[in-house]
Every structure is written in structure tokens, then in C-alpha cells.
Amino acid sequence: MELSIVLMIVGLLGAAILETYRGYIRTKVANDTGLHRNMVTQALVNFVTNYGRLPCPASPTRLPGTTSPVLGAPILAAKSAGEEICAGLDGVISVAGQRKTSSSPAWAGYTPVTGDPIPAVPLTGDPVLIGTVPYITLGLGIRDTLDGWGNRMTYAVSQYMTDSTKFNYDNGVIDIQQMQRTETPPGSGAFTDAIFPILNKVSACPTGTHATCSVGSVPVTQRRGAFLYVLVSHGRDGKGAYNYSGARPVACNATGGRDQENCNDDRSFLDADPKTHIYSTVHTLPVVSDTFFDDPFTSYSLARSSDKWSYQTTTTMYNKTKARVGIGVTVPLADLDVGGNVMADSYLANEFCTPEFDDPMTPLNPDKPAYCINAKMIDGPDGSVYGSGRALGCPEALMRGIKNGTADCEVSTDLTVVTSGTCAPGSYVKGINATGGIVCATP
Predict the structure, then answer these.
(1) What is the tens place of the pLDDT at every residue in 346-395?
(2) What is the mean pLDDT of residues 148-160?
(3) Is the peptide bond prior to 105 cis by the omega test (within 30 degrees of 0)?
(4) Contacts for 409 with CB less than 8 Å, ≥ 6 apart
(5) What share of the chain is helix, strand, coil (3-state, %, to 5)?
(6) What are 397's strand-pairing partners?
(7) pLDDT digits 0-9 by tens, 19-76
(8) Which of 2, 91, 118, 281 could tie 61 with a disulfide, CB 3.0–4.6 Å?
(9) What SS3 class is residue 139?
């Protein structure tokens, strides 16, 4: 009897300790997953800041430390595991994005028109590349890109956004939807689960039928299917995820569930708030349910960098916008337009130019300066015009300046033939001309 009581007490204590341990493990998994998500997200922001684009995905199947064989076009090079692959090669897949050409079947939310900043690819739409996080390209370790269950996070990106010449925060082609619980009608107590598209806020109202530009007189700057990238953890069941070794132990369609949307290799992804009942907290797997969803996050927001400058080396930096820079002017008319004085110990230039128009009210065209002088014309070795072997000057004459690449000379005045004269009241003697006469000027 006493032994039975002791065993019962031990069993109760063991069950309590076991449940506490399980809770600890769940918390640790959640914390590790959130930490690695934040690390990858920040690395993406830093990459955009430094390179003006997003990275392409890495191969999801490549074992860490290995190198792929020479890939096909357009890569035509071997890639180490964790390096970005900007094509549908070595496990990275390429699918059509939300944007389609007007000649293609219409897809919800977008119809390109003339003037769109990103050209559509005929019949295939803007591509979306799907793979895993390119940890080497981002300067991370592979373990930084694993979720708390030890699986690689899925990383999908709008391919045009991996090109710095086309990158734009408003022109992704990934569609994000969210599960929400709604009460219909309000106050009825009847709740249903529904999936709604998430609209991406854009900085300017885009043209074409892919956006509603106003409701009445109020501009609307948001549209569906315009996200640049998505980062997904596939949850405890690991459905559709690739593990550390590059294997996919649980197929995307192994069981039913809404979370298949995040591994079925298309442009659409699904998000749900883990704090709501929609997120499945069942800890006994597998779960066969059409409503099952346990992906802890679907990240798709990219903080916009306000830093327009980036270091190329530790001692040189450049402007990432590739645009004109104004200092003291709001509309720069040249690559560098300074509305003020410039102080420098030395000044290196090939040419010195005046504006095309002297009239300050006339628009300046800095790409077509009217009057330029080559710096080599002013001085060269031993005081000669560079490359000519002769000095730039006016033998036995006065040099007034440089005109059409040569010295502008004036014959010296013979002071013996200077004639006397006076200037009219209110004027003064400015000089003596070549014939010996005085030159007057009015102040």
C-alpha cells in the first residue's frame, strides 16, 4: 500500500516535471525561431542598403560545405551551398509572379500598361524565385537560417527585385494572404474563418488597372500582389521544409492543411497570427485537417533604408541612388550641383565649362555645355601646352585669355603714340587701346 502511494506521488511529480520540460522546449523553439527570423530579416535590410537589391535564393537541396556542378544558363558557374542562385537551377524554382502581361490571361489585381516602371516578361509574368536563405551571400551561417525545429526557412523573392537597376520597393510580384476570423453579421456571435489578400502600401499611386488610385478625392496607394519577398518557417510538422542536410522529409501534400499554401511552389503565401485560434497549437502529429496551420511566421515586410550612401571599401563610399546630388539646391542640374562655395586643397578636372546659357532664367542643360577648356591647355610640362612642346602665350603681345583652345592675344600698345584726351563728366579712364587712345567707362 505504501509503495503504491509512493509510486503515485512519483508519477504525479514526473508528469508535472515532464510538462514543465515540454513547456520549456516549446518556449525555446519559439525563441530560437523568432531570433533567426530577425537575424535574416535584418541581413536582408543590410543587403539592400549596401547593394540596392535583394539577394536571390540559395539551393534548398545543396548540403552545407558542398559545391554544385557547373550550372546551366544564365549562371554557367559552380555555386557553393548558401550562395545565391539567380535562376531556376539546383533546386531553386522559378514561377510566374502576380503581374502578367496584358496579352496573358488576366490575374487578379494587376494589368500592366505603358509607363509601368518594371517591364513584364511576355506570357510568363514577372518571375518569383523560391529556395532557401542564401546565408553565405548574406554573411550568415546556415544555423542562423534554421527555425527552432532545425529546418531551413523558405525564401522567395521577386526576381526583378534582385537586379539593382530595376529594384523598387513598390513593385514586387508576390501575393500574401492572411487568415482572419470575422463575425458575420457584426454582433451576431457567428464567427467564420476567411482568407483575405494583404494589400501592400506603395509610395506612389501606380498607373493602370492594377490599383485603385482614389476613392472620391482621397488617393489610395496600395495594391495586392506587390510584395518583394517572403520568408517562411514551416512549423513543427515541417511540411514542405528542407532540413539542414537539404532533404525534404515531409512532403508538402503529406497531410491536409492550409499550410500547404506555403510550400506548393507558387507565387501566393498564407499568413496567420499565432496568437489567434486559427493557428494550430496541437502538439501531437500528424494532424490531418483541411484547416490545420502551424507555420509560426510568414514575414514579408522590408524596412526601407533612409541611408542613400554605402561604403565600397573602408575608405571610399558611393551614392546608391545613382542620381544627381544637390548641396544647397533642391533640383540638382548636374551629378553634383553646389549652391555655394567649394573649398579644396586641390582640384582635379579634365575640363572647365561654362553653362550652355548665360541667362540665369534659361534652363541649364549640363549634358551639353557650350564652352569648355581642357585643363591640359593651360599648363603642361615645363610650362608648355600639354603635348605640344610650346608655351601657351602671346609673344610680343598681351594675352587676354584662351579662345577656341588657343591664346587670345592683343598687340601691345606703343606708349609713344598715346594721344591725349579726356573722359566725359561722370566717367573715368579705363585704359589705352591699341591705337594709343584712351578708353573711358561709366561706373
Answers:
(1) 877 777 776 655 544 455 555 555 567 666 666 555 445 555 545 566 66
(2) 93
(3) no
(4) 394, 397, 398, 399, 400
(5) 15, 25, 60
(6) 411
(7) 665 666 678 888 899 899 999 999 999 898 888 899 999 999 999 999 888 777 777 7
(8) 91
(9) coil
Cell numbers given for 282: 496541437
Degrees to nearest 5, angle at CA 158 with 154 and 162: 100
Q: Which three cell numbers stand for residue 40?
A: 535574416
Beta strands 154-158 and 351-354: pairing type?
A: unpaired
SS3 95: strand
Q: Where is pLDDT greater, at 248 or 399? A: 248
* Cα–Cα distance, 393 to 408 (Å, whole number): 8
| Cis, peptide link before residue 185, omega less than 30° from 0 | yes
What's the number of CA atoms in the CB half-sphere (13 Å) around residue 135?
Answer: 22
CB of 261 closer than 8 Å to CB of 269: yes
Query: Strands (DSSP E) along 384-432, which ranges?
Result: 397-403, 406-411, 428-432
How many residues can be counted in the chain?
443
Across the range 84-113, mean pLDDT stands at 65
C-alpha cell at 424: 566725359
> Per-residue pLDDT tens for 418-432?
777 888 888 888 777
